[in-house]
Design brief:
Length: 122
């Protein structure tokens, strides 16, 4: 976790901009060490230590995705919202056929948004 120098709140390590105040965050790179568990080290007495991959959080994307706004690596979330056409049908039926106005609210579209900054993605 990275603490913002401006507001003092904690942000995710993958973000470059503070979620709360918008200040650019300064990241300190952590040193990744080769780690061999003691049991595995005892089994491989004569061999070289095995290199362990650094930990990545479960929500992080492996394909190199980055949000264009906040630079987080979490994959986008699909949300369903009432489409523009649905709102038009809703308004038209509200004026012309009152009992059926709710049909426009059933017309939904799926959009993708960043889970960190809620930016709509193309």
């Amino acid at each position: 976790m990275v603490t913002c120098n401006n507001c003092g709140r904690v942000n995710d390590e993958s973000t470059r901009i503070c979620r709360y105040c918008g200040t650019v965050l300064e990241h300190q790179k952590a040193q990744v060490r080769d780690y061999t568990p003691p049991i595995a080290d005892a089994m491989n007495v004569g061999s070289a230590p095995q290199k362990v991959e650094p930990y990545s959080p479960p929500g992080a994307a492996a394909g190199g995705y980055r949000c264009p706004n906040c630079q987080s690596t979490y994959p986008p979330v699909a949300e369903k919202r009432i489409s523009t056409e649905g709102w038009i049908v809703f308004c038209a039926l509200l004026i012309f056929c009152l009992p059926l106005f709710w049909i426009g609210l059933l017309m939904k579209e799926e959009i993708r948004v960043c889970p960190m900054c809620r930016t709509r993605l193309a």
